[in-house]
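Progress report, Aim 2. The chain analyzed during this reporting quarter is listed below.
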Amino acid sequence: MKEAYVHGYDPRENIRLQDQAETLVELLHSDTFYSEGSLVLEAGCGVGAQTVTLAKNSPGASIVSVDISDISVKQAEEKVRDAGFTNVQFRQGDIFNLPFAPQTFDHVFVCFVLEHLNDPVLALKTLKTYLKFNGTITVIEGDHGSTYFYPDSEAAHSAIDCQVALQARAGGNALIGRALYPLLTSAGYNSVKVSPRMVYVDASKPALVDGFTRKTFTAMIEGVRHSAITNNIIDPDTFDKGIEDLYRTTEADGDLCKVGISPFRRDKACLVSCFPRSSWERFGLTLLIFQKMIAAIKNWISGFPFTSPALQ
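Predicted structure tokens for the chain:
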């Protein structure tokens, strides 16, 4: 895999990722949960910023979290252990060549990963092979070209464009949020639906002003200063003015809006499934649904609470 993680692996980036996860937990994970007994693959867990929430939201599921960076995997494992969760296993591995048998997992979860890959369609196709029949995939990505703020600033837009340009040079795509639907359909997924999420921040939301505008978004842009300047993408004065203007949006009369965080969700927001295509597969699915219906009716007649198990 071509490495395209332009933010680096230094401790400050670790802190930024954790701030991002904590600030956006309700926006991104309010409807992310998996049924008891499910086996979930988290592809690209990084330092575990999202893993803790996955483990908390789905205590009855078994989660296998993988990342290409051995250092990140160790940090993620420590983070989850310190949080007291025991339903997660960690593995180091390349998303394009994971050590799992086909149709191993009920669900796959991918968050802020595809933007760093030089072939996201191949990654999605590869992940599809690990899904069980009628399994689901949840993909969450951002779109750094969808940021609006007041007071507006040409220098701030130029600073943001540096991050987009650097990621493109590294083989990634910082604008990938707007492309999720065609990427997933190109990879062979059916029933794809997109649920755009928007972050809007003003002085009436002090937690978001600090957690998102300052510590997540502006810190991310600020972190590419050295690379942007040494690669002659921007001059130091313009970049510094852009960062100053982004911080200016955190004042009482400022605001910031970021559109394009586009989760693929199960249940309420969205279902992305590997639905069968051949006539024999459709027949098998119909038979399986019928069997589950009969089993549910028998439980109801027997006096057990009526449940409709999720189709795996």
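The two ends are 30 Å apart (CA to CA). The longest strand covers residues 131-140. These observations will guide the mutagenesis work planned for the next reporting period.
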